[in-house]
Specification:
The chain is mainly α. The chain is built from 16 helices and three strands.
Length: 400
C-alpha cells in the first residue's frame, strides 16, 4: 500500500472516530490547531481592544487641535477595523501546510527586505524618524512585517546545518542579520535592531552552535552596544536619559507615574487622569494606561498571559522532530516575547524608551497585521492531529 493510500485510510479513521464527515481544509484545521494557543491570543486581542478604548480619549485629546478634532473613541474604532482585517490573515496563514507556510515566509521576507531598503528613498518621516512607506491613503512599517518572516527564513537557513554541517549557514545568517541591522539603524530604529539581533542569537542557540562561539558573539554584542553608545547618537541619547537622567525624561517618568497611579485595583474604566499626560497613550505606553485604569493586578495578569503563550509553545515543541519547525516556532515565540518584555520594561522604567508596541494590545495597523501573520505562522507550525501518532507516515503526510 502506498503512503498516499495509508494517509487516506488514516484520515478516514480519524474522521469516523470523531464522528464528523467534514474533511475540508477548515475541518482538518479545526482539529489540528492548538485551540488553547488560539484561545490565549483571542483573549490577548480582546484585552487589547479594551485597553485601546481606555487610551483612545487621551490620544484623541493629544492629536486634536486647531481645525482638527479627533473623536474620543476614534482609535478604538480604527483598531477594531484592524482586528477585523488581522484575524482572517491569522486564520488563513495558520491553515497553510508547513511547506507552504515556509515558502510564504521566505517570499515575504524577500519582499519586505526590499521595502526596508527603500525606506530611506521613498519613506515618510515622523517624529524625526523615517520608518514608514505610504500606500494610497495609509502607510505601513516594513520592519514590523519583516520580523516574523525573517525569523522563519533564518530558521530555514540554519536548519540546513542539520543536513550538512559544512554549509556556511551561520556566517551567512550573521551577514543577513547585519544588513538588516544597518538598514534599521539608518531610520533610526535602535529598538528593532536589538530585537533582530536577539532573534538571531536565540536561533543560533537552538541550532546547536557551540557555547564557545555563543560566548564570543555575546562579547561582540556587548562591544557593539558600547560602540553604539559612543558613535550612534540615538543610542547615546536613549542610554544617557535612562542611566544618567540626562536630557528629557518626561516620557518614561510620565509612564511610570501613570502606571502606579491606579494602585492595585485601578481607577476604573474611563477614570484615569494621568493618561492624558502620556505622549503616546494608545501605542508605546498603553501598558501604563492599563495600570492606571485597571490596576497593577491587570498588568500582572497580562504579563502572565504572555508567559502562558510562551510556555505553551515550548511545551508543544518538546516532541517535535523537524529542526526547521522547532527553530521557526521557537524563534517566532522569542520575537513575540522580547517585544512584549521590552515594552513592559520601558513602562515600568526598567529600560530606555524604544518606541516598541505591546503585541496585540497597542494600537497600530502595521503592528496588528504583522503580528497576525506571524502568529498565524506560529499556529501553522504547532498544528498537531491528536489522534495520530508521531510516525514516519505522519511526517510525510504533513508535508515535512
Amino acid at each position: 500500500m502506498t503512503i498516499a493510500a495509508r494517509t487516506g485510510r488514516i484520515r478516514e479513521k480519524v474522521a469516523s472516530r470523531l464522528g464528523r464527515s467534514d474533511r475540508s481544509a477548515f475541518g482538518l484545521w479545526f482539529w489540528e490547531i492548538d485551540r488553547v494557543l488560539l484561545l490565549l491570543v483571542f483573549v490577548l486581542i480582546s484585552v487589547g481592544l479594551i485597553a485601546v478604548a481606555a487610551a483612545s480619549p487621551a490620544a484623541a485629546d493629544r492629536y486634536s487641535g486647531g481645525n482638527v478634532v479627533v473623536a474620543p473613541l476614534h482609535y478604538f474604532w480604527r483598531q477594531l477595523g484592524w482586528v477585523a482585517l488581522g484575524l482572517p490573515v491569522m486564520i488563513g496563514v495558520s491553515m497553510m501546510p508547513v511547506q507552504l507556510a515556509r515558502r510564504f515566509a521566505l517570499g515575504s521576507a524577500a519582499f519586505f527586505s526590499v521595502m526596508l531598503a527603500l525606506v530611506p528613498l521613498i519613506g515618510s518621516e515622523a517624529n524625526g524618524a523615517r520608518r514608514w512607506i505610504g500606500v494610497g491613503i495609509g502607510q505601513f512599517q516594513p520592519s514590523e512585517f519583516l520580523k516574523p518572516f525573517f525569523v522563519v527564513s533564518l530558521a530555514w537557513l540554519l536548519s540546513l546545518r542539520a543536513q550538512d554541517k559544512s554549509l556556511p549557514v551561520i556566517p551567512l545568517s550573521g551577514i543577513l542579520t547585519g544588513l538588516i541591522a544597518i538598514l534599521l539603524m539608518k531610520q533610526p530604529d535602535f529598538g528593532q535592531t536589538i530585537i533582530f539581533g536577539c532573534m538571531w542569537l536565540a536561533l543560533l542557540m537552538l541550532a546547536g552552535v557551540p557555547i564557545r562561539i555563543m560566548g564570543m558573539l555575546a562579547g561582540a554584542g556587548a562591544v557593539g552596544v558600547v560602540l553604539a553608545y559612543l558613535f550612534y547618537p540615538v543610542a547615546t541619547q536613549r542610554i544617557d536619559n535612562f542611566l544618567f537622567s540626562a536630557g528629557d525624561t518626561y516620557q518614561v517618568d510620565s509612564a511610570h507615574a501613570t502606571l502606579v497611579a491606579g494602585g492595585f485595583f485601578g481607577t476604573g474604566p474611563g477614570g484615569g487622569e494621568m493618561k492624558f499626560h502620556l505622549p503616546e497613550a494608545h501605542t508605546d505606553y498603553i501598558f501604563s494606561v492599563i495600570g492606571e485604569e485597571f490596576g497593577l493586578f491587570a498588568c500582572i495578569a497580562i504579563a502572565a498571559l504572555f508567559l502562558a503563550i510562551v510556555v505553551r509553545v515550548f511545551v508543544k515543541l518538546l516532541d517535535e522532530e523537524d529542526p526547521f519547525v522547532v527553530m521557526a516556532a521557537a524563534g517566532l515565540t522569542v520575537q513575540f516575547a522580547i517585544q512584549a518584555l521590552i515594552n513592559m520594561a520601558v513602562n515600568v522604567n526598567l529600560a530606555p524608551s524604544k518606541g516598541m508596541t505591546l503585541p496585540f494590545i497597542s494600537y497600530g495597523g502595521s503592528s496588528m497585521l504583522a503580528l497576525s501573520a506571524g502568529f498565524g505562522l506560529l499556529l501553522a507550525f504547532t498544528r498537531r492531529n491528536p489522534y495520530l501518532t508521531r510516525s514516519p507516515y505522519v511526517v510525510k503526510w504533513s508535508g515535512r
